[in-house]
Amino acid sequence: MTEAAAFLNVANSLSGKRWQARPCDERQAQALTQGRGLPEIVGRVLAARGVTDETCDTFLNPTLKALLPDPSRFRDMDPAAERIARAIRDGEPVAVFGDYDVDGATSAALLRRFFRSLGADIRVYVPDRIKEGYGPNAAALLRLKGEGVQLVVTVDCGISAFAALETAAEAGLEVVVLDHHAAEPRLPPAVALVNPNRLDEDGAYRTLCAAGVTFITIVAVNRVLRTTGFYRDRTEPNLMEWLDIVALGTVCDVVPLTGLNRALVAQGLKVMARRANAGLAALSDVAGVKEKPDAYHAGYVLGPRVNAGGRVGASDLGARLLSTDDPIEAMELAQRLEAHNAERRAVEQVVLDEALERVAAEAGRETDLVFVTGVGWHPGVIGIVAARLKERYSRPACVVALEEAADGTVIGKASGRSVRGVDLGAAVIAARQEGLLLAGGGHRMAAGFTVAGDKIDALRDFLHGRVSEQVAAAPLVPTLELDGALSVGGASVGLVTTLDKLGPYGTGNSEPRFAIADARVVRADVVGANHVRCILQGNDGARLKAIAFRALDSDMGQALLNGRGTPFHLAGVLRIDRWNGSEGVQLLIDDAAPARSA
């Protein structure tokens, strides 16, 4: 460690951010290290994440035995479990109506695997993103009814599908909703609506994603089947063997990896490492994942490929991949998803470039919300583009894909991503209640909506007003929080190995980020399409590999490429770099600042 005060307060980095130390209770940090053999820097990392002496052991070893709640604590869980169990016992035709993202795909796959383990099956229906849009629609539900389906279980959707569920109820089709998105005081008609974000819930499990809700529901259904003697003459399934799917959905839905979510992911990654799921094994092979999977692989390697089917291919590919036990089918599906993912990247880049041009055209307009529209933009990539814009401008971002209907009217399908401190989902729900949207919903960090073309300007103003109110209460200042300061020589394999024990990392348990002080760029070049790779050297003579992803066209990337011999303070996360049987450390650069101006 080096003295942090000299440069942890970088006021204006090359990406325009202020660096600041992550708040940490020093006394708590010391208490955490005593008796546990942890380095002082690790104690600081733990304390900065709210870990106390009393919760430390559970944090370091999160188990479902300690953290999984009684399913009956959730509203409507018992009637939901009873209805699904009755359908299984009586052999009723059942369908699961999913979403086309990873959370929806994993939730649908969980239910299908559970049904199949009992000798039954379940019809998986995932709507076409472009033709049908998000969530249950009346036409699809009536089609399922016509096929003989008696019960539909919606996963990762349904809590705001008032019209569709009213149609289903009128047609005599029973529906159980398993969702986690923001709910309203009024709920749609259904046999049961299980959602930790219902307004009559206590909020203790509000951060669960749909895969987590679905898993807990399966636990409840399994309990009902057990107590009613269903397993007297058959083997009870081992629900724990599907935690790899739960972990994938939890990581990819970017929910906080704390408490129960942390246990689900920690235990699920262990299951994933066994490669028992044919689909995940095939996808890992196609994606080139050779090492033990962690949250990074789930969120940035496997997740985007599962998502690709819903974005530019067939919406149900992800659910089919995750629920198959046939290795030949799994490999065929994985290869299709890999191809779709390559197509998705190309389409995404086109839309992103056009979106950036539109933002640049309004550069003089001060706004707390990035809101861009484009004709012909592919609806399957607007969520990713919104995330890119949010990252670039440190503001909530909404991207609207416009298309002309057969009758000449213009309809916009949109996706939004938010920043900490701004509840975008609530703003979108309020806009729908004001009559500005045809449909819409979401949660604090993400939202989606459909808007008529003649309402776009009014909607932009409305959302900007809602976001500005929240920003006024807590101004958005782009900051980069750091867990400590290291010299180049202090970035050791031993330190990174110890820090790995604090994972899985993600939202709510961010990967530790450090400032590397006074590092000179010895060599820098471009790798891949636009990544900048460096070799850094410290005042102690030690060297460190580093890379800045997608940085070629940024001020930081150009400064590194042209800064040979220049001292920089660099901020980023440390990873083990394995190559040809040896281990080293690599810095993944998030930001940089000239050392002389810090």
How would you describe what is shown here?
- By secondary structure, the protein is of the alpha/beta class.
- 40% of the residues lie in helices and 20% in strands.
- The chain contains 20 helices and 18 strands.
- The protein has helices spanning 26-33, 40-48, 56-60, 64-67, 77-90, 102-117, 138-146, 162-170, 210-227, 243-252, 259-273, 278-287, 295-312, 317-323, 327-361, 382-393, 424-433, 456-473, 493-500, 555-561, and strands spanning 18-21, 94-97, 123-125, 151-155, 174-178, 192-194, 370-375, 397-404, 410-417, 439-442, 446-452, 479-482, 484-486, 514-527, 531-537, 543-548, 567-579, 582-594.
- Strands 3-2-4-5-6 form a 5-stranded parallel β-sheet, with helices on both faces. A 5-stranded mixed β-sheet has the order 7-8-9-11-10, with helices on both faces. A 5-stranded mixed barrel has the order 14-15-16-18-17.
- α6 runs parallel beside α14 (317-323).
- The chain is globular, with a radius of gyration of 25 Å.
- The chain starts with 17 loop residues before the first strand and ends with a strand.
- Residues 1-7 have low confidence and may be disordered.
Question: Nutshell version of this structure?
Answer:
The chain has 598 residues and is an alpha/beta fold. Helices cover 40% and strands 20% of the residues.
Draw up the topology in text.
Blueprint lengths: L17 E4 L4 H8 L6 H9 L7 H5 L3 H4 L9 H14 L3 E4 L4 H16 L5 E3 L12 H9 L4 E5 L6 H9 L3 E5 L13 E3 L15 H18 L15 H10 L6 H15 L4 H10 L7 H18 L4 H7 L3 H35 L8 E6 L6 H12 L3 E8 L5 E8 L6 H10 L5 E4 L3 E7 L3 H18 L5 E4 L1 E3 L6 H8 L13 E14 L3 E7 L5 E6 L6 H7 L5 E13 L2 E13 L4
Parallel strand pairs: 1-12, 2-3, 2-4, 4-5, 5-6, 7-8, 13-14, 16-18
Antiparallel strand pairs: 8-9, 9-11, 10-11, 14-15, 14-17, 15-16, 17-18
Helix pairs in contact: 1-2, 5-9, 6-9, 6-10, 6-14, 7-8, 9-10, 10-11, 10-13, 12-15, 13-14, 13-15, 14-15, 15-16, 17-18
Family: Belongs to the RecJ family.
Protein name: Single-stranded-DNA-specific exonuclease RecJ
GO molecular function, one term: exonuclease activity
